[in-house]
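Hey,

Quick one before I head out. I ran the complex with pyridoxal-5'-phosphate overnight. Inputs first:
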Amino acid sequence: MKINTLVVKDFVDHKQGIKSHQLPIYATSSFEFEDAQEAVDIFNKTKNGYVYSRYANPTIDHVAAKIAQLEGLGSDKECIAYLTSSGMSAISSVMLGILEKGDHVITQKDLYGGTTELFNKVLTKSGIDFTYIDLNDISGLKNLLERNKKIKCIYAETPANPTLTCVDILELSTLSKQYGIFLIVDNTFCTPIIQQPLKLGADFVIHSTTKYLNGHGNSIAGVIVSPHVDLMKGAVWPTIKLLGSNSNPMDAWLLNLGMKTLALRLEKQCSNAEVLARFLDAHVLVNHVNHLSLPNHNSHAIALKQMKKFGAMLSFEVTGGMESALRWIDNLKLCTHAPTLGDVDTLVLHPASSSHIAIPKIEREAVGISDGLIRISVGIEDIEDLLADITQAFNSLNNTLK
Ligand SMILES: Cc1ncc(COP(=O)(O)O)c(C=O)c1O
């Protein structure tokens, strides 16, 4: 064999039985067939087998199966999951997979800004309509369901980004079953360590795995999990395959690596968040704090009902509006100003000028996203260092306000 052949060819012995301790990365776009008949059988679906990584890939499948197990843990239902290229593609793929032109979705006003934009700017073009209400108003919801038979789905994000308002998953799933419609829950802020919507009767769970599940800010992906195996295989998977919204082996591998410490990370993040929430709540330059551990948060009771911990996301309104908020962020020396959440280190963001910039001011203020609101994704640092950084940021702000 000559040099140009040798550099391109990988003569992999598939029968050597190498026992890798860690998950291998199958960085391959396609898979070889044993012989021509095997290809025929796989394409005819009379035999299972890997074909092409947009359809399925062993690294990706391993990670999806692990998340399905986590979300379904302790329930009598077997779940399946598909990894997608991002949290946004998990949302669009499940919606386009299970809904049709003319279908109607009921959802909440305080969704992650990107989700609201996806609904209003993209999915409406496919003939799917959306109504935004308070999903805790069960009688209002019942009213809508009685009047509009085109409603096929309730879409909830709980806790919501960045106000942490929760919706009662069990109440919504009971209602959705009564009316024969689907309930989709975005479980990004909790992960299955804190909350398991499928156990509470939800039909589909989606995640931006980019956040807590990965936890290290080095992978973008999403996941759809459901006990509706036939619907997942028959409607959701073809949508992912044909939209090309599948994940890739490298991001899936990084996600898997990050997930190994998920429970440990969340333990520390949640306890740091509770200390920080109490500290901020007592600070003179803070108007109010949103953290589910605080008994005065409007969703404290729902959180107690359906979450095992209060989570590690919080937000607070600094006095002095947008100018103070931006100045406070610039004063920070340890916490990082970055537009993501759920990483091991503490991150801050000003939603009004970033994640929710496309939401009209009047609409975002109506759901509590004011100009002075700052979001904190609490990390695993020593709490004394976090408190010291936040204290000095307030002290510097106080000096400029004088
Ligand atoms: C609650 C929530 N859902 C979905 C998304 C979208 O995720 P991704 O950025 O991975 O597409 C985000 C992003 O911030 C989010 O906060």
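The longest strand covers residues 151-157.

Talk tomorrow,
K.
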